[in-house]
Write a structure and sequence with these properties.
The complex is a heterodimer of chains A (660) and B (252). Chain A is α+β, with helices and mostly antiparallel strands and 660 residues long. Chain A contains 18 helices and 21 strands. In chain A, helix 1 runs parallel beside helix 12, helix 3 crosses helix 4 and helix 14 packs antiparallel against helix 15. Chain B is elongated, with a radius of gyration of 21 Å. The longest helix of chain B has 20 residues. Classes of the chains: A alpha+beta (660), B alpha+beta (252). At the A-B interface, helix 1, helix 4, helix 5, strand 13 and helix 11 of A face helix 1, helix 3 and helix 4 of B.
Chain lengths: 660, 252
C-alpha cells in the first residue's frame, strides 16, 4: 500500500499547529508556504491570546463567559458549538504554549501576566511584550523544525499553491504548487489537504495585512468548488498608522494597558497635544460607552473614530483623517510592556509615542469570513465531537480549512486576542479529524490514483501561467490592483451604502475585463514575482466580488457590517413612558431583523459570478440579544429586552400549562 | 516636475549570471520607504535611461520589521527595506539610494537571496523545547520576571541575516554558524525544559564552526535591528563551552 500524506498549505499559527500535531501522530506532512514559515503573517499579531485564567476565575469569570463575550462580540453570527469548544480549550492551549517555551510576560511570583482587551470586562489576555504573535509562531516553528529534522515534515517554502486536485468523484487527491524560484510546477499527492492560508486584506489594497495576504489560495479553493462564507464580514481595526505601502497595526493592547483615544474639541486644534487641557479634549469612547470605555469591540471603536473624524469634522489634521491614541500618561513600566509596538510607531513615524500622542486611523485588518467548514456538535456538552471527520472539513471531501482562512469562530466581528486562539485551536483539532479519516480510508490512497490525474492538473496550471505570460495587452496589474483597493476601501469597509457598493461592483466588472488585457513586464521563467502577483490579482478580483455582493445583499447592520440606511432608529423621547414604548418598538424591530438576517452568507463559484445562498446559524446555547455595550442612553433597551424575554417565558409556560 | 530619487540597484538574473547595476528614477513621496520604492519600480520598470526593464525581484512580507524577510544592503548597510525610510536615507547620503542583495548568501535573483543555511543552523543547535507531547499536561514551569526579561529579547530574533552579513567570520569558506544560531542555543539552554538538550547544543558550539570561530569583531550586535544582545550570548556561550569541555575531559 502506498504511503499516506497530508499537505498543509500555509505555515502561520494554524498551519504549524496542525503540522506539529499531525507529525506527532506519525503522519507525513508536506508543508507548503509562499514564504519561509517563520515569516508568516501571524508574526504581526501583537497584543495577546485570550483564555479564562486563575486570576479572572476568582473575579467570577469562566469558559462560559469567554464564550458569551465572543458570540456577543460577533453579533451571534457564529455556530456556537465551535466557539464553546474553543473557549473550553483556551486555558489548555495557553498551557501548551507555555510548555513550548513562549516568553510570556510574568508577574513577580513567576506566573503568566494578563492584560485586558476589547469586548470584555476581564483580564483574559496572556501576552509576550507586544509581539505575542511573533513569539507564538516561533514556538510552533521550532516544534515543526524538530519534526522536520526527524523526517516527518517536508517543507516547501517559496512555493505558491495553485489549486487542489479533485478526482472524478469530487474528492481532493492533492494539490498543484509552483516553486517561486525555479518556477517549476508540480503536483503533491495527498490524502488530505489543509488550507491555512490566512485572510485577504490585499483585496482592499493597503491594510494591516502582510504582502502575502492576497486571498489567492482561498480564491483558488473557491474556484475549485469550496463554498465561501460571510465574505462581507471584514474587520476594520480602529487603530492603525497610515503608510504609503501598508497601514501598520497599533495593537489594541495599547488601550488594554490604559491608552486613551481622543480628539481636540476644537476642530484641527494646532496646539501641541500635550498642552491641550483635559476639558478641551473629547474622550469620545469613554463618554459614549462609560462601561467599556476605550475597550469597546473593534467594529464599534472603528465606527466611532470614523464618526468623530468624518461626520463631526474633528479629525486631528485637516488633510489626513486621524485621532489621537495616547499612551503618554502611562507609567514607564507599563510603557515597557508595549515596547514592541511603540518602537514600530517610532521607527515609521519618527516620533516617540511615549512623549507624543500617536495619530491613528482605522484600517482593514482581518477576514471574519472565509472558506466554509463543517463541524459535528456534541449534544451532551454543546461543544464539538472531537476527532469527528466533519470538523473543519469543507464541502469538498479531503479539503480542510483552519485559521483565518475559515469562516467560523468570530461571526460578525472578532474580539481582540481571539484570533491567535482560533488559529491554534483549529490547527490542533483538525489533526485528530484527519487521522481518523486516514485510518478509515476506503477510497484508496492518493498515491494509488492514476498519474494522469496529477499530470493533467499540472498541465492546466502551466497553461494558465503561459497564457498570462504571453498575453499581449496594455493593462498594468499594479494599476488594476490600486484601483480595486481604492474602490473596495472607499465603499465596502466601515460605512456601506447600497449605491456605493453597486458602483464598486461595476468597477470590479470593469477591472475583470481589463484584467483580460493584462501584460506582464516580466515574461521570464526564473523567480518571476510579476507572474505570481498577477495570478493572485485575478483571484483578488474574484474575491472582491464575493465580498461586495454579500455586502450588497445583506440589508442590515451586524458586527462589522454597517449600513446606516438599515439602522434601527435610536430612541429620542424624554418622557419615560414614551421612551419605554420606543424601546419596545426597537426590540421588536431587532427581533424581526434577526429572524430575517441571522444567517450566514454562502457564496458558490460559477463562471458568471457568485451564487449566493444563506445558512442558518446554531444559536442553541446563548440566545441572541441586542448588542449595546452599555451605550449611554441605550440602557432601556437591555431592560426592555429582558422584560420581553421574561414575558415570553411566562406565556410559554402558561401555554404549556393549558396544554397539560 | 516632481522630485525624483535616483535608485541604483545591483541586479542579477539567476544564481549563475553575473551582476549589473541599473538606476531607476523614482518619484518622491512623503513618508515612503524602500519597499514603496521597489513597488513603484515594479509598477513602472523603466530605467533612468528610459530603457524598459523588468521589476526588481525582492523579498517582502510584513512591512513592519518583524518578519525579517526584506533584509538587504541599503546604502552600504544591511537592514530591512520596510523600515528604511527614504527621508532618512537621503540624509545619510543626499544624492541617491543604493540597493544590493546580502553578500553572505547565494543570490536567487536581484535582491532575493537564499537564507536556508540560517534555518539549517537552527536545526543544528536544536533550537526548540523538546516536550513530551502536545496533550494537556498543565502549565509550563514558573519563570521569574528577571528570566523572562533576559529570554524575551533573544526570542525576538527573526532570522533576518543582518548579523551574519556584518560578521567577518561568516562566509562561504568558513563553517561558522554565526551569532544568531549561537544566541538561540543560549536561549534554549536557559529554558528549564529546553535545558535537557543543553549538552548537545554545547557540543555543537564546541565543534568546528562553533564559538571558537567568532573573531569578536562585535559587528553583529551593532547591526541587529532588534538590538538583541548577541555579544552577551556569545560571551555566555564561550563560558559554557569551556565548562562543557572541562566536563568532557573529566569524563562526565
Amino acid at each position: 500500500m502506498a504511503k499516506q500524506h497530508v499537505v498543509v498549505v500555509g505555515g502561520g499559527l494554524a498551519g504549524l499547529a496542525a503540522t506539529m500535531r499531525l507529525a506527532e501522530a506519525g503522519v507525513h506532512v508536506y508543508l507548503i508556504s509562499m514564504v519561509p514559515v517563520k515569516r508568516s503573517h501571524s508574526v504581526c499579531a501583537q497584543g495577546g491570546i485570550n483564555s479564562v485564567n486563575n486570576y479572572t476565575r476568582q473575579q467570577g469569570d469562566s469558559e462560559w463567559l469567554h464564550f458569551d463575550d465572543t458570540v456577543y462580540g460577533g453579533d451571534f453570527l457564529q455556530h456556537q458549538p465551535l466557539v464553546k469548544e474553543m473557549c473550553d480549550w483556551a486555558p489548555r492551549v495557553i498551557d501548551l504554549l507555555d510548555r513550548l517555551g513562549v516568553t510570556f510576560n510574568r508577574t513577580p511570583e513567576g506566573l503568566r501576566d494578563q492584560r485586558r482587551f476589547g469586548g470584555t470586562m476581564y483580564k483574559r489576555t496572556a501576552f509576550a511584550g507586544a509581539t505575542t504573535g511573533q513569539q507564538l509562531i516561533y514556538a510552533l516553528d521550532e516544534q515543526v523544525r524538530r519534526w522536520e529534522a526527524d523526517g516527518l515534515v517536508e517543507k516547501f517554502e517559496y512555493w505558491d499553491f495553485l489549486g487542489p486536485i479533485l478526482d472524478d468523484s469530487g474528492r481532493c487527491r492533492g494539490v498543484v504548487a509552483q516553486d517561486m524560484f525555479s518556477m517549476e510546477t508540480r503536483s503533491f499527492a495527498a490524502d488530505a489537504v489543509v488550507l491555512a492560508t490566512g485572510g485577504c486584506g490585499l483585496v482592499f489594497g493597503r491594510s494591516t495585512m502582510s504582502m502575502i495576504c492576497t486571498g489567492g489560495a482561498a480564491g483558488r479553493a473557491y474556484k475549485a468548488g469550496v463554498k465561501y462564507g460571510n465574505g462581507e464580514f471584514v474587520q476594520v481595526h480602529p487603530t492603525a498608522i497610515p503608510g504609503t505601502d501598508k497601514l501598520r497595526l497599533m495593537s489594541e493592547s495599547a488601550r488594554g494597558e490604559g491608552g486613551r483615544v481622543w480628539v481636540p474639541k476644537k476642530p484641527q486644534d494646532d496646539r501641541d497635544p500635550r498642552s491641550i487641557p483635559a476639558n478641551e479634549r473629547y474622550y469620545f469612547l469613554e463618554e459614549r460607552y462609560p462601561k467599556y470605555g476605550n475597550l469597546v469591540p473593534r467594529d464599534i471603536a472603528t465606527r466611532e473614530i470614523f464618526d468623530v473624524c468624518v461626520n463631526m469634522g474633528l479629525s486631528v489634521e485637516q488633510d489626513q483623517l486621524c485621532a489621537y491614541l495616547d499612551v503618554t500618561e502611562l507609567s514607564p513600566e507599563t510603557q515597557k510592556k508595549l515596547d514592541g509596538i511603540l518602537e514600530i510607531y517610532e521607527k515609521f513615524q519618527g516620533a516617540d509615542p511615549r512623549q507624543v500622542p500617536m495619530k491613528i486611523f482605522p484600517a482593514v485588518h482581518y477576514s471574519m469570513g472565509g472558506l466554509w467548514v463543517d463541524y459535528e456538535k456534541n449534544t451532551t456538552t454543546g461543544g464539538l465531537v472531537l476527532g469527528s471527520q466533519r470538523n473543519q472539513q469543507s464541502n469538498i471531501p479531503g479539503i480542510f480549512v483552519i485559521g483565518e482562512a475559515d469562516y467560523q469562530y468570530h461571526g460578525g466581528n472578532r474580539l481582540g486576542a481571539n484570533s491567535l486562539l482560533s488559529c491554534i485551536f483549529s490547527g490542533l483539532i483538525v489533526a485528530p479529524s484527519i487521522e481518523n479519516m486516514l485510518h478509515s480510508f476506503s477510497a484508496g490512497n492518493a498515491e494509488d490514483q492514476p498519474i494522469s490525474l496529477f499530470d493533467g492538473a499540472v498541465k492546466e496550471h502551466e497553461a494558465h501561467a503561459d497564457r498570462l505570460i504571453k498575453n499581449q495587452g496594455s493593462e498594468n496589474p499594479y494599476q488594476i490592483h490600486k484601483e480595486l483597493g481604492d474602490s473596495m476601501t472607499r465603499n465596502v469597509t466601515v460605512v456601506r451604502n447600497n449605491d456605493d457598493i453597486k458602483s464598486t461592483l461595476a468597477k470590479i466588472e470593469e477591472l475583470k475585463d481589463r484584467y483580460q488585457n493584462v501584460a506582464l513586464s516580466d515574461t521570464g521563467d526564473w523567480t518571476n514575482q510579476n507572474l505570481s502577483f498577477t495570478r493572485a490579482l485575478g483571484d483578488m478580483i474574484m474575491m472582491a466580488r464575493v465580498i461586495a455582493q454579500g455586502a450588497l445583499q445583506r440589508d442590515e447592520c451586524r458586527g462589522a457590517h454597517f449600513k446606516p440606511n438599515f439602522l434601527t432608529p435610536p430612541m429620542d423621547a424624554d418622557d419615560p413612558a414614551e421612551l419605554h414604548k420606543q424601546a419596545q418598538r426597537w426590540c421588536k424591530a431587532f427581533k424581526e431583523k434577526n429572524d430575517r438576517w441571522l444567517k450566514s452568507t454562502i457564496a458558490e463559484f460559477t463562471p458568471d459570478g457568485p451564487k449566493m445562498s444563506y445558512e442558518s446559524v446554531d444559536t442553541s446555547l446563548i440566545p441572541p440579544r441586542p448588542r449595546t455595550y452599555g451605550l449611554k442612553g441605550a440602557e432601556i433597551i437591555d431592560e426592555v429586552w429582558r422584560e420581553m424575554g421574561a414575558q415570553a417565558k411566562t406565556e410559554q409556560q402558561a401555554g404549556a400549562g393549558t396544554a397539560n | 516636475m516632481a522630485k525624483t530619487i535616483p535608485v541604483k540597484i545591483k541586479r542579477q538574473d539567476t544564481p549563475h549570471d553575473g551582476s549589473r547595476w541599473e538606476t531607476f528614477d523614482v518619484p518622491y513621496e512623503s513618508g515612503m520607504n524602500v519597499t514603496t520604492v521597489l513597488q513603484r519600480i515594479a509598477a513602472n520598470p523603466m530605467t533612468a535611461e528610459q530603457q524598459s526593464s523588468t521589476p526588481v525581484a525582492y523579498d517582502a512580507c510584513c512591512l513592519e520589521e518583524i518578519c525579517g524577510a526584506c533584509t538587504m544592503v541599503i546604502n552600504g548597510r544591511v537592514r530591512q527595506a520596510c523600515s528604511a525610510l527614504v527621508d532618512d536615507l537621503l540624509q545619510e547620503q543626499a544624492d541617491s539610494i543604493e540597493l544590493q542583495p546580502m553578500t553572505k548568501f547565494p543570490v536567487v535573483r536581484d535582491l532575493v537571496v537564499n537564507r536556508q543555511p540560517m534555518f539549517n543552523s537552527l536545526s543544528k543547535v536544536k533550537a526548540w523545547v523538546r516536550v513530551d507531547g502536545y496533550h494537556d499536561m498543565g502549565s509550563g514551569p514558573r519563570v521569574s520576571e528577571a528570566t523572562q526579561e533576559e529570554a524575551y529579547p533573544l526570542s525576538r530574533c527573526m532570522t533576518c541575516g543582518c548579523c551574519v552579513e556584518a560578521c567577518p567570520q561568516f562566509n562561504d569558506h568558513s563553517p561558522f554558524i554565526g551569532p544568531a544560531a549561537i544566541s538561540q542555543a543560549i536561549l534554549f539552554n536557559s529554558h528549564p525544559t529546553g535545558a535537557v538538550d543543553r549538552e548537545d547544543r554545547l557540543a555543537v558550539l564546541s565543534d568546528a564552526g562553533g564559538i571558537a570561530d567568532c573573531g569578536n569583531s562585535q559587528n553583529c550586535v551593532k547591526v541587529c535591528p532588534k538590538e538583541i544582545p548577541l555579544t552577551d550570548s556569545i560571551a555566555k556561550a564561550g563560558r559554557d563551552t569551556t565548562l562543557y569541555k572541562i566536563r568532557q575531559w573529566f569524563g562526565r
